[in-house]
Each structure stands twice: as structure tokens, then as C-alpha cells.
Write a structure and sequence with these properties.
The protein is α/β, with parallel strands linked by helices. Helix content is 42%, strand content 13%.
């Protein structure tokens, strides 16, 4: 069984020869560049210049020799740089800034910074719906975004025989709207001025649909899994009430996922962090077939309970080891023990792709990453 067959089998809720493994197939199952620099020599591989795949999260592009050695079953398709763009970078006041096509500003301390954090929201002022409609737009269908993408996808599928994964356009509807407006103000709008909040979400939806239609016209017949991200939870609870989600966010997400299903054969994966258990049934209703990252440390996200309640209707991608404590601060044996527990809970009957809970962070020791992969291979056979 090759890697692609392995992933497709488990996503069809059948047991493959072993649990599939993802590292670097998406921007939420990747590895920070600092952790990657330590991992490469720990694997006995020659040193190399690390290519940063995602600038704000500082994620490394996982090299072919690393993917081969770790037996990674996935391949990721990532956007190129648009031909017409407002993206720019600058250094000022001790920060390295990235300005994106949405007009948002992200900054990272020049000395010792590990990530770029949101620092400027272009719709943060006292605005009207007309201001939202006039917000300068990125060009989702810019050919630079998809240049060479089909050739890369075909190579992954036909030559590497890995499952082909692709990420959506920017963040999710809810989170991108909150970034544009500013988190506090957007959630106040959602409660006190929902027409304005919905206008912002509709603008995001417009951009995302344009990208979906463009990218799927290029690779819709090749992509196996289409990832969309929209964080709905905190460590303890949801970001908004289930009622607000169902009234304002769910219909817009449903339109996105319907577009994917209509224009491709890809399965829909939703990345949603936190304590999202109250919404998993809603996700299933609107066409989500895979849930990531399965944040096992959040309230209500016990993997055995999730598998028992939802495992016949949705696959789980992630949840393999807690990145908040165990992978970062645990011993290699603690990592191995947790990997075994998570596989025991999530793997029976198929419907499971192993990955850490979200990206492997900067301070994770290389020996813990090696222990994670060794344990997932040792314990992941069916």
C-alpha cells in the first residue's frame, strides 16, 4: 500500500496497513524553522539552508529526504506569490513587519522573535458597511498564486504517490473577519452590530469563493484533501455561542464547503482549534469530513469520547501528541506513551491520520520529535 492509498483508505473509514503520518502537508501540521534545524542533523541528514514555507508562523518547508526518512504520507500544495500584490516587508522600532494583501500588519521582534503576531487591523476604525465594501481587495484569482501548482500536484500524486493536500485562502471566515476588524471590536460587533460583522464576513467569503473557484479549476481533479481553517474555540470554551455560530458563521462555511464538493473530488478538512466539541455535529452537517487539530488538552476534547461519538461520520487528523506540554516539555518516554494512548483511542476502524496537535513549536527537542515518529510507527500498524 503506497502513501496515498494509505491516506485515502483511512479517510474512507477503512483500516490501512498502518496509521498515515502527516508532517508539513499543511500550515497547521508543520514544524517551526528552529525545531527543524535541530531535527535535520538528529536524523543523520546533511545540514542545509532551511526554506521558510509560512512567514508569519515561521514554518520550515519539509525537504524530500526528511519526508522519505520519516515516511510522511502527505504532500502540501502551497500558494505562490501573486503577480499583483500589496505584500511588503519593513523593519522599524525593533520589529520586522509583514504587510499582507488584506492590508493587515504582522510583526515579530527582530531580536529573539519566533512568530509574527497581528499588530494592525485595517478596519479597526469607526467604520460603516460602505467602508467594508470599499476595503481594498486581494486578487484571489491572480495567476501567480497557482503558477506551477498543477505540475507539483501531479508529481505528488503520480510520482511520489503521496496524498495531495491544499490549504484555503488566508484564514477562515470568522477569524479573518476578526483580524480585519480587530478581535475585541469584531466580537463586540457580532453581539451589538451583527449587520456590520456579517458585512465583513461576506467580504471575506467573496474573496475565498473567488480563490476556490480559481484554484479548483487548476487542480480540483488532483487534490485529495482541501483544508480550510477557522478557529472556533478557546482552551475552555467556544469563542462565540453555538447559536451565534449557527446564525452567522455556519451558513457561510457551508457555501465554501459546497463549492469544494461541487468542483472537486477532494475531502473537506476543517482546522478548528480549541474546545469545539459542541460544534462537531454542525461541521458534519455542512460537509466537513475531517477535523483537525483535535486539541486533546482543551475542555471536552477527549479523543476516545470523540471517536465514540463522531468517529463513524468524521475522520480525525492530528491529536497524536499534545504540543502544549508533552511534546515540548516531556521526556521522550512520555512522548512515546502519549502517542500510544492517542493511537489506541483514534485509530481503530480507520478514520485517523497521525499528526501532532498543531504545528511543532520552536522549542521542541529533536529527540522528542524522533520519539513521536518512532512510536507512531511501532504502534500504528493494523
Amino acid at each position: 500500500m503506497d502513501a496515498r492509498e494509505r491516506v485515502l483508505s483511512t479517510l474512507a473509514h477503512r483500516e490501512p496497513d498502518r496509521v498515515p503520518f502527516d508532517l508539513g502537508g499543511t500550515i497547521v501540521t508543520g514544524i517551526h524553522e528552529e525545531a527543524y534545524r535541530r531535527l535535520v542533523p538528529a536524523l543523520g541528514l546533511p545540514s542545509r539552508e532551511v526554506v521558510v514555507q509560512d512567514r508569519t508562523q515561521h514554518l520550515a518547508a519539509v525537504d524530500d529526504d526528511v519526508r522519505d526518512l520519516l515516511q510522511v504520507d502527505t504532500g502540501g500544495l502551497f500558494q505562490g506569490t501573486p503577480i499583483v500584490t500589496r505584500q511588503r516587508e519593513e523593519v522599524r522600532d525593533g520589529y520586522a513587519w509583514i504587510w499582507d494583501d488584506f492590508g493587515m500588519g504582522w510583526r515579530c521582534p527582530v531580536d529573539g522573535g519566533l512568530y509574527h503576531d497581528l499588530a494592525h487591523s485595517p478596519l479597526a476604525a469607526d467604520i460603516t458597511i460602505d467602508d467594508v465594501r470599499a476595503q481594498p481587495s486581494p486578487e484571489p484569482a491572480d495567476e501567480g498564486r497557482t503558477a506551477g501548482m498543477r505540475e507539483r500536484a501531479l508529481h505528488m500524486r503520480d510520482e511520489e504517490r503521496r496524498a495531495v493536500c491544499i490549504w484555503g485562502f488566508g484564514g477562515g471566515i470568522l477569524e479573518t473577519a476578526s483580524w480585519l476588524r480587530g478581535l475585541e471590536q469584531f466580537f463586540m460587533d457580532l453581539a451589538g452590530d451583527p449587520d456590520l460583522a456579517c458585512a465583513i464576513m461576506d467580504r471575506v467569503l467573496e474573496w475565498k469563493l473567488a480563490y476556490y473557484e480559481h484554484v479548483l479549476s487548476k487542480v480540483g481533479d488532483v487534490v485529495d484533501v482541501f483544508f480550510e481553517g477557522d478557529d472556533a474555540g478557546t482552551q475552555q470554551s467556544l469563542l462565540i455561542s453555538p447559536d451565534a455560530y449557527r446564525r452567522y458563521v455556519k451558513p457561510r462555511q457551508a457555501e465554501l464547503f459546497r463549492t469544494i464538493h461541487e468542483r472537486s473530488g477532494a475531502r473537506v478538512a476543517l482546522h478548528s482549534c480549541g474546545a469545539v466539541r459542541p460544534l462537531i455535529g454542525d461541521f458534519i452537517e455542512i460537509g466537513v469530513e475531517i477535523l483537525n487539530p483535535v486539541q486533546v488538552s482543551a475542555v471536552g476534547m477527549d479523543p476516545a469520547e470523540l471517536k465514540a461519538e463522531f468517529g463513524r461520520e468524521i475522520a480525525f487528523w492530528g491529536g497524536g501528541v499534545d504540543t502544549q506540554r508533552v511534546l515540548w516539555a516531556g521526556t521522550p518516554q512520555e512522548v512515546r506513551d502519549e502517542v500510544r494512548r492517542r493511537i489506541d483511542a483514534l485509530a481503530p476502524g480507520g478514520g485517523y491520520v497521525f499528526a501532532a496537535v498543531h504545528n511543532i513549536q520552536a522549542g521542541v527537542p529533536a529527540e522528542n520529535i524522533v520519539a513521536m515518529r518512532e512510536a507512531s510507527l511501532e504502534h500504528g500498524g493494523y
